[in-house]
Specification:
It is built from 4 helices and 14 strands. With 355 residues, the protein is mainly β. It is flat.
Length: 355
């Protein structure tokens, strides 16, 4: 390995770090996301996922449908219970609506120059070449879990004098302007009030500054009074679970956001890189799988390392319930594993006025 050539210790931090191999583009505020290196070994091509042939549609009983309807009416203060108690269910029609979900778990890295109060850490900048950004060892979280971590890059730490206090460790107090005392507000600095000595300031006209305890100085906020700073390269690692859903359009007439409910899981598989679903009974799911996988692998591979992908297909149950009440026909929907109810035209409502 060729030895790294470093600038002299007197160079500025950004210029110094900019000459570290692998960190040439670093600048104040961050060097941006770093594209991952190409894998050392070719990645095995993803294999088609097996698609099960058991597509049983869960059926909803009248008792469950009525109980869900009852809970729905009870949650609305202005809804009469009469349609629930007296309505007669005439027909229940189930619908099988599919949701496809793609998760792409990525790791991204970016670097920036950083400083912190010096607390005895080892200054290892010149001891050996620093690992490049994607060579720094980190422990990833559980798969498909969002997480952030900041790491001090090995062999980039150096000690410098604090630029804010110029190595003194203290700064003039902003509150008293370095005097240590403030004007007594009781006597306006005169030392007396109503022709008598001011007892608040003992007739001095001044009071000790509480901010600096009458010292006139306070610890430098940059170095916390340590007088020195540790300058280093900070590596910011972010793991992100990028999730995208596709719900097949259904013809039940239900107009709600089905992304907010759960369904019956029919299929799930994960690989480093996924292969689109083939042979799914609903072609819209196969098309969504192919489109989203291609889009994710193209989009996220530019700035991140794709660690794992997972695809899931759920069957979201929807039951259209027709019922009669007072001689008229009405309907409501029960949907999702949570048995949510949608009844936009509930037939027995009143206006509630809060006094």
């Amino acid at each position: 390995m060729n030895s790294a050539v470093y600038p002299p210790p007197t160079a500025s931090a950004v210029n110094t770090f900019g000459n570290v191999p692998g960190y040439e583009g670093i600048m104040a505020g961050g060097g941006g996301y770093l594209p991952p290196p190409a894998p050392m070994e070719p990645v095995a091509p993803p294999q088609p996922g097996l698609v099960p042939d058991n597509w049983s549609i869960p059926t909803l009983s009248e008792d469950v449908a009525r109980e869900a309807f009852k809970d729905y009416a009870s949650s609305h203060c202005c809804y009469s219970k009469s349609p629930v108690n007296d309505g007669v269910i005439t027909n229940m029609e189930p619908f099988n609506t599919f949701r496809y979900r793609l998760e792409t778990f990525t790791e991204s890295r970016q670097t920036e120059p950083a400083e912190k109060p010096f607390e005895g850490e080892e200054a290892d900048f010149y001891t050996q070449p620093a690992p490049r950004p994607w060579e720094v060892q980190v422990t990833p979280p559980n798969l498909f879990t969002n997480h952030k971590e900041e790491i001090r890059v090995p062999y980039t730490s150096s000690i410098k004098e604090c630029h804010s206090c110029r190595g003194i460790g203290t700064m003039p107090c902003d509150e008293c302007k370095g005097d240590g005392y403030k004007l007594c507000l009781v006597c306006d600095g005169s030392g007396s009030k109503n022709d008598e000595n001011c007892t608040s300031c003992n007739a001095t006209g001044k009071k000790s500054c509480p901010t600096c305890d009458a010292r006139g100085t306070k610890d430098c906020t940059t170095c916390n009074g340590k007088r020195q700073l540790l300058a280093y390269i900070k590596l910011k690692v972010e793991w992100t679970n990028n999730v995208e859903d596709y719900v097949v359009e259904q013809n039940s007439g239900l107009k709600v956001d089905l992304h907010k409910v759960s369904g019956k899981e029919l299929f799930k598989n994960n690989q480093n890189l996924l292969y689109p679903l083939i042979g799914f009974p609903n072609p819209a799911i196969s098309e969504a799988s192919e489109r989203l996988i291609k889009d994710h692998q193209s989009k996220y591979a530019e700035t991140s390392r794709i660690l794992q992908q997972r695809q899931t297909v759920e069957l979201i149950p929807i039951t259209k319930v027709n019922y009669k009440w007072k001689g008229n026909s009405h309907l409501y929907f029960v949907y999702g594993n949570e048995q949510q109810v949608n009844a936009d035209n509930y037939p027995a409502t009143c206006c509630c006025v809060v006094q």
